[in-house]
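Entry 14. Structure prediction run on the chain below.
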Amino acid sequence: MKSTDSSSTMIDVGFNMPMPEELIPMRIIYNDDELVVADNLRDMPDFQAYKMTFNVLLQCRHGEAQFNVGNEAVRLHANQTFICHSHVMLTHVMISPDFDGTIICVSDRLMKNILQSQAGIWNHVLYQNHYYIIDGPEPTSPHNEIDEAIIEFFRKSKSPFKQDILVSLLRAAFLSICEHFLNDGKNASQQYAENSSRMDVLFQQFLENINRRQKKKVSVAEYADELCITPKYLSTICRKASGKSPIEWIAEYVVADISFYLRNTNLSAKEIAAKVGFANSSFFGKYVREHLGMTPAQYRKKKAV
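Output returned:
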């Protein structure tokens, strides 16, 4: 594995901005405000951290990659596909010298347009689990063949219907993945698909609303207002859908953001507190001690070792 070092940089890759120059060696096949397709990832540079602002499908063809999703270590092998929703934070990225793969990055808006009525299945799995690995699929599996068709299409197509064809190919790829979710006994997506209700939809919207915010540390009442429901009803929805309260869900995402900023930026505790949504540094420090077991400075120092 080659790993990140002190010279590595943090990137916040978003749409509505040019692709960072450092990523150009990855052979960007297509890049616009809502879609990035890149091949030849063996040339991917080292980075300390990625802060995703799009849904990602990363297919490993050869070699392996290792990184953290939040605080969880993930290892990706040949013929595996890593999938995550937007706003996931990837850190400690390491890739083997023989690594090769393809990445497709899709904005939330385009993803909803592609999946349409099936978007709930995608959200149900990925917003609760943060990421998913299709474990060791055969190279000829349907979604792999579709991915290859997308790459080949980008390389050669000059069709005047290019955008429409692209959306159709992406829809086939991501519906194939949703079908895999439904057939996987390890998650409850099939039950969700069969019993989807307004409460399920509101729960998924609540998680999406947490994800899209930079200042996530706001009251349950504020999140409930966004959904035009009462805090009590939001609590009922969350406990029925996940067994966790709204406060627990908010804390999970807030702590993930805090951990990311402390480990991967030079922002001061005061700056991080303001960025995440705390009224003052004192409250922020107390919150970090409660959830991470140490002060912000201690956590930053420990993670730097």
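Residues 3-25 have pLDDT under 50 and may be disordered.
Filed with the rest of this week's runs.
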